[in-house]
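Its record is retained below.
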Amino acid sequence: MTRAGFHPHDHHRCIADAMRAAEAHCAAHRLQLTPVRKRTLEILLTEHRALGAYDILSRLDAGGFGGQPPVAYRALDFLTTHGFAHKIEALNAYVACAIPGDQADHAPAFLICRACGKVEEAEAEPAKGPLARAARAAGFAIERAVIEAQGLCPTCKDMPA
């Protein structure tokens, strides 16, 4: 399954569906989706690219949620801890999860367009590929893997140079 980041889709429905899923997951697991957490998730869902914490903070501040860094970092910590967002390590930025909620078996790979900054999420299954074979050979137990690939999305790849 992939996120619709590189492909045409009904973006308003995409956001609405993801927000409904987040609200349902929080209700079912007795998690508090506070107004600032909800707005932070909406900000991430509005883009199909990774956003830095200070970019998110400026949008939160413009919306009346405050401009101090802990506001954004606490919301992002909640969202990443509970599987609603991911940190893109290479960019030190965040993106909404394409498969929000249960993170126990979720192993995403991120395809990052170096030209436009869009990010698409795909399932990586690192426990089944060459990384898993190397880990088994070394006697290593993988607990978490972050897979990020940078390149050009279909739109940017097809643009004339």
Remarks:
- The two ends are 31 Å apart (CA to CA).
- The helical segments are 11-28, 35-46, 53-62, 69-81, 130-138, 154-157.
- Residues 4-157 form a domain with the Arc Repressor Mutant, subunit A fold (CATH 1.10.10.10).
- The chain has one domain: 4-157.
